[in-house]
Design goal:
six-stranded antiparallel sheet, alpha+beta, seven-stranded mixed sheet, Calcium-transporting ATPase, cytoplasmic domain N, Calcium-transporting ATPase, cytoplasmic transduction domain A, Rossmann fold
Length: 629
């Protein structure tokens, strides 16, 4: 990869030098021609010097193309047109076209240089991801540290990562703590902290402390390697526009060559003005080169994919850009996608006691339970070490827990437990999980626990609507009341609660009737639905291999707002590609008509070809610049 990059770099330099040298030689030749009275042959030899300096590569490529049976390449079209322009001056009664011929070739090379620069910049935007991959890793072997190629390290070996180094392989932190810069993976600038026992992913940069890590995967399976693989293969999945261009070029080029020959020969036969019509035929060839299309459209998609990856959005192929831009429906999974998946106490409604006392009793009763609800109660009342005595703890699955706190019988659980205790409970108007508390059989009040909605979930839904999404839907296995509250607070169009993973697939199949559909999940159990949707989007997929495999679009962090960014980038990329197709074909057709009517000069022909290519390439470069969120 490095070698190839270096080679491309050198090629660009060589092209620039030959363009400058040829431009200087062309100017010199023109001055000599103006001030001398040589023969046509002498002028031809004079102009051949700048022509070969700048055009040698193109002539060579055209020759090789002919040998391989690819006669109708743009190099071939350019070679025929320029050699024809050089030769036209030898026809009786014709003016020489030497400077024009050299200029056409020169300008063609300028266009090629622009293309190389643009391609280089697109590659760089994807190459910033290549930096994910470190060249060396330090591994502990036989009590000593050895520096080796990361590919030689096996799972289970211990590696040491110093501050400032990239994490070479996925693993678990054994010793030390540090903060990690994950910007290359997620596009997110806030560092993540890691300590002993935490999972660590390759491609992050270790910022502060020395850490020892036990590797869990081989190099080729690690997160960084997978992401690189995804991005490198993305460009191979051609979009509809690119497929159209490939087919178009295959049909278009032979037609154009045929027309150019017809323009040169048929009127020549009729009028006998061979010089005029051969010149027009050559003009026709120069104008008709489809470089602008062939170069700029794939480049636009390449730029769009690179720009999205900078934002931590990996789109697995240019073909998905078409689908993302046409999205009608976005379906969300609830937990972990729209909500944090973290339970917390959101309301306390006491009857007999005050709020603190109610929380205090509930937390003590739940002190040994590992249930997420119990954790939420304990977090709400963290003062565990007080003088209370707790005894006789009895847990009833599906009901709750009863214990003696300072001699009082405290029951904490659902309405079924209250009925068993004979306490007169009443429902709550808040949505969430309601935990009732009874003391010595008397109802003491209840506590509401619910999952926290992600901070940017609401703005994400609004941004999707602004981006033209017709319908937003939420699917969840959670209960109706919780689903309803989340859907209402986020202003979603539809929600379906109490679903099993198989039900989600059925719902998605039904919703697919409404147009192109994206399913957004956090990927742990969403693989079947991600695969079924037109576009599967996995969120926060750092570390979830199943999601990275099954999804079409991978958002590297947990922000739902990135979905709208992906839709915008896709729409913009497609718009730029369409502008390039329309602009290039429009200008070409116009100048072709002028060339046939004899109203176009060789200079206009050059603009129609190379000028349009340069404009299209510059336009394609806009796809790299991502709109700010």
């Amino acid at each position: 990869m490095e070698h190839e990059h270096h080679h491309e770099h050198e090629e660009g330099h060589g092209r620039l030098i030959s363009i400058i040298a040829a431009a200087v030689l062309l100017a010199g030749s023109y001055i000599i021609e103006r001030n001398t009275a040589w023969t046509t042959w002498q002028y031809l030899l004079l102009y051949l010097i700048p022509y070969l300096v700048v055009g040698w590569e193109t002539l060579k490529e055209a020759g090789e193309g002919l040998l391989h049976g690819e006669a109708l390449s743009e190099d071939f079209l350019m070679s025929v047109a320029t050699l024809g322009a050089l030769g036209i001056g030898f026809l009786p009664g014709a003016e020489t076209q030497f400077p024009e011929a050299v200029f056409v070739m020169l300008f063609f090379q300028v266009g090629e240089l622009f293309e190389e620069l643009a391609e280089g910049r697109s590659r760089k935007s994807i190459a910033h991801l290549m930096d994910l991959r470190p060249d060396t890793a330090r591994v502990e072997r036989g009590g000593k540290l050895q520096t080796v190629n990361p590919e030689e390290i096996k799972p289970g070996e211990i590696i040491v990562i110093q501050p400032g180094e990239k994490v070479p392989l996925d693993g678990i932190v054994l010793e030390g703590k540090s903060s990690l810069d994950t910007v290359a993976l997620t596009g997110e600038s806030v560092p993540r902290s890691v300590k002993e026992g935490d999972e660590i992913l390759s491609g992050c940069v270790n910022k502060s402390g020395v850490i020892k890590v036990r590797t869990t995967k081989v190099f080729g399976e690690s997160t960084a390697a997978k992401i690189l693989d995804l991005v490198e293969n993305a460009a191979e999945n051609k979009s509809q526009s690119e497929r159209f261009i490939t087919k178009f070029a295959r049909i278009y080029t032979p037609i154009v060559v045929g027309l150019a020959v017809a323009v040169a020969v048929i009127p020549g036969l009729i009028t006998g003005e061979w010089v005029t019509w051969i010149y027009r035929g050559l003009l026709f060839l120069v104008v008709s080169c489809p470089c602008a299309l062939v170069i700029s459209v794939p480049l636009t998609f390449f730029g769009g994919l690179g720009g999205a990856s900078r934002k931590g959005i990996l789109i697995k192929g240019a073909n998905l850009m078409d689908k993302l831009a046409k999205l009608q429906t976005v379906v969300f999974d609830k937990t972990g996608t729209l909500t944090e998946g973290v339970f917390e106490v959101t309301a306390v409604h006491p009857e007999e006691l005050d709020e603190t006392e109610l929380l205090h009793l509930a937390a003590h009763v739940e002190r040994h339970s590992t249930h997420p609800i119990a954790m939420a109660l304990r977090n709400a009342y963290p003062k565990e070490q007080d003088s209370c005595t707790i005894s006789d703890i009895e847990e009833t699955a599906g009901h709750g827990i009863i214990a003696r706190v300072n001699g009082k019988r405290v029951a904490v659980g659902n309405s079924k437990l209250m009925e068993k205790e004979g306490a007169k409970w009443h429902p709550c108007h808040h949505s969430g999980t309601i935990v009732h508390v009874a003391v010595n059989g008397e109802y003491a009040g209840h506590i509401v626990i619910s999952d926290r909605i992600k901070a940017d979930a609401q703005s994400a839904v609004e941004a999707l609507k602004a981006a033209g999404i017709k319908k937003t839907v939420m699917l969840t296995g959670d209960q109706e009341s919780v689903a309803k509250a989340v859907a209402e607070s986020l202003k979603l169009d539809e929600y379906h609660a109490g679903l099993l993973p198989a039900d989600k697939v059925q719902k998605v199949e039904a919703l697919l009737q409404d147009g192109t559909l994206a399913f957004v999940g956090d990927g742990i159990n969403d693989a079947p639905v991600l695969t079924r949707a037109d576009v599967g989007i996995a969120m926060g997929a750092l570390g979830s291999d199943a999601a990275i495999e099954a999804a079409d679009v991978v958002l590297m962090d947990d922000k739902p707002a990135k979905i709208a960014t992906a839709v915008k980038i896709a729409g913009r990329t497609l718009r730029i590609a369409r502008e390039n197709i329309a602009g290039a074909i429009g200008i070409k057709v116009l100048v072709l008509i002028l060339a046939t009517l004899g109203l176009a000069t060789m200079w206009m022909a050059v603009f129609a070809d190379v000028g349009v290519t340069v404009l299209a390439v510059l336009n394609a470069m806009r796809a790299l610049k991502t709109t700010s969120e």
